[in-house]
Write a structure and sequence with these properties.
This protein is α+β, with helices and mostly antiparallel strands and about 220 residues long. It has helices at about 5, 15-35, 45-50, 55-65, 80-85, 155-160, 195-205; strands at about 40-45, 90-95, 100-110, 115-125, 125-130, 135-140, 145-150, 170-175, 180-190, 205-215.
């Protein structure tokens, strides 16, 4: 048992579920898209929608999408920092279906691309990323994560996995376009994926896009 298990996470904010968890979800998105988006839309569900201001969920989400860590003292000023930057953001509320009460859907735009990621804060600062660009998953961010858009043809996934020199923990795969013959593979690994492996993967003719999110 770790000190974190005994004493809880070190954070700025009143609630590990509403503050730390929401920050980590948005921070995952920040790392996934490679920086601060030009525009972001937060859709809050359940308890998040009811207590978003009182528990500082809005500040935490903004801080995370701007890449701040849970210990960053600037979290309290996230709205002011966002206002001074070119980041355009909005908070909306909706029923996202059969998901955890503390769930947020984040739609972010960066470099002309739109990304859609949904995550839940399950308590104690722990999170689950439950959807990435239409692909259902259950990512705890305890592992390193690769998200790869591949050609939906026989043998393509096998060729991609052949490039990897680390152990695969979990694998999610879904076709995203039958017309364009594209699929998305989400791969979690025990160890950091070496840069050499990532370069080989990006150069693979079966790979359209490749994103790497190291363990936080």
């Amino acid at each position: 048992m770790s000190l974190l298990d005994v004493m809880g996470p070190v954070m700025v904010g009143p609630s590990s579920s509403h503050t730390l968890g929401s920050l980590r979800i948005a921070r995952f998105v920040y790392k996934f898209i490679g920086g601060i988006p030009s525009r972001v839309r937060f859709v809050l569900h359940g308890s998040f929608a009811e207590t978003w201001r009182g528990h500082g969920t809005d500040k935490a989400l903004l801080a995370g999408i701007m890449g701040m860590s849970p210990q960053d003292e600037r979290i309290r000023d996230a709205q002011e920092i966002a206002a001074r930057s070119s980041l355009k953001y909005s908070f909306e509320f909706d029923d996202l279906g059969e998901v955890h009460a503390n769930t947020v859907l984040i739609e972010a735009w960066r470099n002309g691309k739109k990304y859609r990621i949904m995550g839940s804060s399950i308590g104690g600062g722990e999170i689950r990323i439950v959807e990435i660009n239409g692909v259902s998953c259950n990512i705890s961010w305890e592992y390193h994560t690769l998200v790869v858009v591949i050609r939906d043809v026989p043998g393509s996934l096998e060729r991609i996995l052949r490039e990897m020199s680390v152990n695969i923990t979990n694998l999610y795969l879904r076709r995203i376009s039958a017309v364009e013959r594209l699929a998305t593979a989400i791969i979690e690994t025990d160890d950091e994926v070496p840069e050499e492996d990532r370069v080989k993967m990006r150069e693979n003719k079966c790979v359209i896009e490749c994103y790497y999110i190291g363990r936080d």
